[in-house]
Amino acid sequence: MGLYVLLQPEEDADAGVVERAQGHPSLVISSGDARMTVQIAGREGGAEMAIRFARQLAEAAGTFADRCEALTRLAPLDFEALAATLGTTPEEVAEAAERENDKPSTIDAEAFTDVSTTEGRTR
Fold first, then answer.
1. pTM of this structure
2. 39 with 28: CB under 8 angstroms?
3. Rounded to whole angstroms, what are the CA distances from 100 to 2, 10, 95?
4. 20 to 30 A Cα–Cα from 84, which one of 9, 22, 53, 120?
């Protein structure tokens, strides 16, 4: 069974670790009335899988934060323009991304050319 969860953090969004019982940590993510908890699976290898997942999640969260920060450094995101360009459903976004990937690539040769003359020689 698959489960798709979309979380758009609200002002009260929070993430933290709680350990209600010794040796049973939980990663708790909450926003508004929504809450998601990640725990160690109660089977062989469960701890190793939780460790690997938590490290991947931490790396992805850092990358996500860096990207969001870069996108909003100069001005807030214009979600209406973004939705008009990409769409609002996963299918529409996938179609827009496919159209973008199908465009021919162009390279500005001048951007890669460093022609400097020093004492009559070209470097």
1. 0.61
2. no
3. 29, 31, 9
4. 9
Report pLDDT digits (tens) over 11-36.
999 999 999 889 899 999 999 999 99
CB neighbours of 114 closer than 8 A, spacing ≥ 6? 123
Q: Which of 6, 4, 3, 26 is nearest to 15 (CA)?
A: 26
DSSP per-residue string spanning 7-37: ----TT-EEEEEEEETTEEEEEEEETTEEEE
Single-letter code of the amino acid located at 52: R
Crossing angle of the two packed helices 90-102 and 79-86, in degrees rounded to 10: 70
Cα dihedral 74/76/80/82 (nearest 10): 50
Rounded Cα gap, residues 35 and 60, in angstroms: 19
